[in-house]
Design a protein that fits this description.
Strand content: 25-35%
Structural class: alpha+beta
Largest sheet: 7 strands, antiparallel
Length: about 240
Amino acid sequence: MCRHLGYLGPPVPLREFLFDPPHALSRQAWAPRDMRGGGTINADGFGAGWYPPGAATPIRYRSAMPIWTDSALPALAAATTSGALLAAVRSATIGMPVTESAAAPFTDGTWLFSHNGVVRGWPGAIAGLAGDLPVEDLLTLDAPTDSAALWALVRGKLRAGWPPAKAVAAVVAEVLAVAPQSRLNLLLTDGAQMVATTAGHALSVRAGGGAVLIASEPLDADPSWQSVPDGRLVVATPSRLDIS
């Protein structure tokens, strides 16, 4: 069912999220604590997207391999500093491809997107929703997966001028209406704000000191971590956190 995280705040090395903490994303890949029955390990790829200082568009690094097998990533994460990051490790749903292009984050322009969960009844359940998208968007999906399709639905609303929080919330509501029991923890950022949802899966937030960190599971034992209840929309900037 995947694990993901997003960070906004002062620039720091990526290793402070991917490797250094006792329950960093790389550890969550092979020893997750709260998958809620959605698998036992996240070994079907990983990805990270970050915004270089002063840049509006992100750089993305993805692989179809388990994050712990990438010998270059620890050095890259130590040498790369950013104030905005979205990263994920993947546990592929049975029947979906294990390819680099299926790993989050998905991106378009300034945006990075990740999905932690599963669309029940895929692909038929959301065929009607997908049918409202431009054919070109469907033909250019990163991968034939539920996560890529969810990104296409969110992206379509963003391109139509919807505010990010409204776009994400609407997609979750629309998908749950046609595919009940889906797990739809979405995470979206443009490097300035983050939007996240809890729909069937775990999420925690840590905010303060001009920074905010959203993660499927807390990275450490810091008491400032706050568990987000199910059915919530999280909107965050480095200085503001709203959970509704």
